[in-house]
Structures are given as structure tokens and as C-alpha cells.
């Protein structure tokens, strides 16, 4: 099963092709701006309200996974923060929710495979959109180059790596 937000969904076609060649069945359960965390989450810059549709989606998905017991769940996400009880966005709450969700799968003999996020570009002049930058600079792509370090720091890579390292038997795919 492939689960997570749109970052997970971007891998679906490739994973389906690999699965077809390997004799795997790949079910996809993704929701935009909804990392696989069985807690209320909110993605930055979207709304100040909890994303309850995401929580409901993930609660239903977790119930189904525990019932079906797939061999593995492949996870990917962009989000690195979730809403704390005081309403503030924190990494700690997201990390706790991810750890709880992943541990639930592991405790039920379901392998967890974190597939790391590909970091998005930091191009403020083009709203982070590489295609806009390339379109505006068709003869010279140099303005479209961005520093990978801050892009990685803003991605799901650090939190997914940290959660994976905290759980025995979970190794990231990068």
C-alpha cells in the first residue's frame, strides 16, 4: 500500500510499474496535503483550522490496513509539522503522530517503508515553480538553480529520517 500526501502520490505510477514487474499488487491510498498520521494535522499556509478530513481519512485507512494486513506500507510526505493542543504548529507533534502511526503498523507485522520526499525548489521570484523560472529564462537556467540544503530542511526528509531511525527495522528509501 502506498499512503501519504501528494508527495506519496507522485511515486504511484513508478511503483506500480515496478510492482507489475515484481509480481506485487500496489494499492494507493493518498490524500492531498494529508500525511499518514492518525492525528489531526494541518499543512502550513493552508488554513488555521484542523484538517479533520485528513484525520478521518487516515483513521479509516489505518483501520483498513490493520484488517487487511498488507506486507508493507510505503509512506511519503511533505509535511513536517502538526497542530499542538495550544493551536501552534510544531514538529514534535508531527513526529509523535508519525511514530505512533508507524509503530501501530509495525506492531501488527506490517513493514513500514518511508520513501523520502524530493525537496521542492526555493525560488521566491517564481513562487517556487521551476517551470515558471525556466519559462522566464529559456536561454539561461542559472536563475533557476536553488540551494538544496534549505530545500531539504523544509521538506519531509528530516522528520521521516528521524522517525525511521527511532524505530527498529525501519529504513528509509532515498
**Strand share of the residues?**
5-15%
Alpha carbon gyration radius? 17 Å
Structural class computed from helices and strand pairing? alpha/beta
String of helices and strands: EHHEHEEEHEHHH
Mean of pLDDT: 90
Please provide the count of β strands: 6
Profile the largest sheet: 4 strands, parallel
Strand order of the largest sheet: 2-1-3-6
Write the layout of secondary structure elements.
Layout: E1 2-4, H1 6-9, H2 12-22, E2 28-30, H3 52-68, E3 72-76, E4 82-83, E5 89-90, H4 91-107, E6 111-114, H5 130-136, H6 148-154, H7 157-166
Parallel strand pairs: 1-2, 1-3, 3-6
Antiparallel strand pairs: 4-5
Helix pairs in contact: 4-7
Descriptive report:
With 174 residues, this protein is an alpha/beta fold. Helix content is 42%, strand content 11%. It has a four-stranded parallel beta sheet. It has a two-stranded antiparallel sheet with strand order 4-5. A hairpin with a 5-residue loop joins strand 4 and strand 5. Helix 4 packs across helix 7. The longest helix is centred in the middle third of the chain and has 17 residues. It is globular and about 55 Å long. The two termini are 18 Å apart.
